[in-house]
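Quick start: what a row looks like.
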Amino acid sequence: MIHGEERRKIDQLFREVADTGMSRRQMIQRAAVLGVSAQALTLAFVSGARNAVAQGGDNPLGVDPEAPLDIVIFQGGYGDDYAIFVKDEMYSRDFPDAEIEYVGTQRLQEQFQARVVDGNPPDVMDNSGAGNFNTTALFSEGQLANLDDLMAAPAYGQDGVTFADSLVQGSQQEGVFEGSQYVLKYVFSVYGIWYNQALFEEQGWEYPQTWDDMLAMCEKIKTETDMAPWTYQGLYPQYMRSVFDQLVYKNAGWDGILKLDNLAEDAWTQEPAIAALTALRALYDNEYIMEGTEGLSHTESQTFWIEGDAVFIPCGAWLENEMKDVLEGVPEFQMVVQPVPSLTAEDALPFSAVQAAAGEDFIVFSQGANVQGGKEYLRMLFSQEGARFFSEATKSLTAVVGAAEGLDLGTAFASVETAIAEAGENQFVARYAGWYADLDEESRLQMGNLLTGGATVEEVSETLQTLTNELRENPDIPKFTREAPGAEATPAS
């Protein structure tokens, strides 16, 4: 079996052969330049010939129909019924002789790091949730399979449509490294502020569109009701970090976000960042956060919110499905999402600007025993059949074009669709936390400190800027840059 960096080099070599039409002699010479051993090249030819025999119109990726498949799925807010459906009703239907090992679980890195290091990883994984692998690190280590052949393959069950063309335009850009696809994003989600529309109608409230209006409404809630204005997923303060990201984006436009992502010298000291941190600190200073929030898990805080102990909570579009059991006991609850309020009335972008992007990272490991089977599983998952089942089961959108057309799935689903439509081109996602594990961890910690009085705005800003500077100057850390909205991740050094 060919592993790691040599697998990547062979993939690059075969792409160059396809693009240039080089002769066999030229290919062998090029392999030597790339550092591909003769043994690995021979194995690649044998594997390619075997795939060519298996490959056909119903099997465009050349999957060995008898090869076992090893699947690992993050069992989080979306559950894993959808993944089991694709396994049982699609992959097993097309490859009945393939044995499938399946695990639905959480905290993936803790459980599978040893297998990855030993060169025996699962074939395909939903690499999501707390404790997942850092995909940038996996790419840098040569652990991710190149998915370009999947992107060029026919979409499952659709005539005349490639897999790439079946997906929402731009939804997969975050999974591109060095010009090739290595990660696929499945769920198309809005991240915003959630509340109970029935409560708002009962109280005659209107959702605030600026942060000053938000604070005024919080004061009204605090003084006139028994509810707390806000709660959040206390043990996981990255939920509030996303609110910070949106405040910066709305106030400064892409310039503010690009400074954070590109490790600028004033990333965390720029005026929009200071203003956003100050806005969030006001929730603590004015006692607008539900008492005890900092000690709650995500599901605990979300349960208190549904039960009426708090009015606002930040989250992504998985919230309804994650809390469906609790919601069954509160049938009158009408869950809806809105964008984070504008930082000021003079923001660069309108109120409708929102964090909306594809999420749930699906990967195929380059050292997996059945790489092509892993890709085929994803081809099925990202099909009209697979994606529509997901939306019906989770009340969430996918990155598959038209898969949820005509579905009526309640107020939360409808509000997500409305938010995406009204945002138009003003959609974004910050990348710094995904690119740099140390910055991810420290920004989570500092956001928690900010919201519990453990650190001032100035201390948070200085701490994160110091770390940003250290990362930027460290030659041993791979760095990435973004130059424009929707630009791919490109190595900076």
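That is the whole record. The first helix runs from residue 4 to 20. The CA atoms of residues 139 and 316 lie 26 Å apart.
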